[in-house]
Amino acid sequence: xxxxxxxxxxxxxxxxxxxxxxxxxxxxxxxxxxxxxxxxxxxxxxxxxxxxxxxxxxxxxxxxxxxxxxxxxxxxxxxxxxxxxxxxxxxxxxxxxxxxxxxxxxxxxxxxxxxxxxxxxxxxxxxxxxxxxxxxxxxxxxxxxxxxxxxxxxxxxxxxxxxxxxxxxxxxxxxxxxxxxxxxxxxxxxxxxxxxxxxxxxxxxxxxxxxxxxxxxxxxxxxxxxxxxxxxxxxxxxxxxxxxxxxxxxxxxx
Length: 254
Hints:
By secondary structure, the protein is of the alpha+beta class. The protein is built from 5 helices and 16 strands. It has helices at residues 5-8, 89-92, 106-125, 154-166, 178-183, and strands at 3-4, 14-23, 26-29, 31-32, 46-49, 55-63, 70-78, 84-85, 99-104, 130-134, 139-145, 171-177, 201-207, 212-215, 230-237, 242-249. Helix 3 (106-125) crosses helix 4. It is elongated, with a radius of gyration of 20 Å. The model has no long low-confidence stretch (mean pLDDT 92).
């Protein structure tokens, strides 16, 4: 198994680890700062520093087939002289057992953290079932089931979002058992993506005391004020009852 360091330490930029497996273009560490793609949030990127000065460029991150390991997709290997080499088996397999230092691309990660927390707030402002979503570095989206005929005014929603952001609500995590989640189905806002169950417990993200509480495995900021300026850029019709709401950083008026 890969220890998910990102889960409890999303602000940690670097950490030592041991390479436990390596194939063509992929390696697995015993502990990972890199968030693996899932739940609508892209996987982290960054680099792996080897003891001899070589660097592995991490292009993306995903779960292994067993969901217990985290796979780092290696784009290339840079030697100490800056020469680029392919991330093939010949270059990666000898690394098994080596101690390395992992460094995430913080600017990229932090934007995703801010966006993901903003999307939770959007689900508060628009209290409808979520039919889909995607976290992005510059733009994110949530799809809502508006079968009751409700409409979305991007100016009003943007103002309500900013009120929650500027209130500086604390963002924390907690855990409940699978049985507790099954007994409280209202915690799950997504219609198509269900929280992972089967391990005995499920992680919840809480905003404020009672602003929002829902299952989520993604990375988030410590308080809503860290999100900064955010606004609804566009509302699209995606079918008779489905509405796609797009979020972007910055004020609505630019």
